[in-house]
Amino acid sequence: TQAWTSFSELETVFAHSGNQNNIARFVKANWKEDWYFGYQCLNGCNPLLIHQISLVPPNLAVTSDMLRP
User: Fold this and answer.
1) Is pTM beyond 0.85 here?
2) What percentage of the chain exceeds 70 in pLDDT?
3) CB 48 within 8 A of CB 41
4) 22-39 b/e (C-beta count within 10 Å ≥ 16 → b)
5) Residue 17 clears pLDDT 70, i.e. is over it
6) Distance of CA 33 to CAs 27, 29, 30, 60, Å?
7) Quick one: which of 12, 45, 58, 66 has the fewest CB in 10 Å?
8) How far apart are CA 44 and CA 68, in angstroms?
9) Helical segments of the chain, H only
10) Are 1 and 67 in contact (CB under 8 A)?
11) Where is the Lipoxygenase domain (predicted)?
12) Dist CA 8 CA 48 (whole Å)
C-alpha cells in the first residue's frame, strides 16, 4: 500500500465516493476554514487527534484496497 502523495489523489477518491453526498460536498468546501475546524473540535471529530499511521492495525475493518489512492 502506498501513501497518498497529494491532495489531488485524495480528491480522486472523494470524487468516486462522496461527490453525490450533500454532507461530503459541504465538508470538502469548508474543511480548511477556521470555523469548521472549531466545529469539528466541539462536535467530537477533533482534528488534533488525527495522525498518520504507517501500518494498518490487524483488527481494523478496512482492507488495503479501500485505502489505496
Assistant:
1) no
2) 91
3) yes
4) eeeeeebeeeeeeeeeee
5) no
6) 10, 9, 5, 30
7) 58
8) 26
9) 7-17, 22-30, 34-42, 64-67
10) yes
11) 1-69
12) 22
Is 4:69 a contact under the CB 8 Å cutoff? yes
Cα–Cα distance for residue pair 42/12, rounded to 1 Å: 29
Contact 24, 18 (CB under 8 A): yes
- Interacting residues of 40 by C-beta distance below 8 A, sequence separation 6+: 46, 47
Which residue is it, cell 469548521? 36
Q: Which three cell numbers stand for residue 23?
A: 454532507
Report whether 40 contacts 34 (CB < 8 A). no
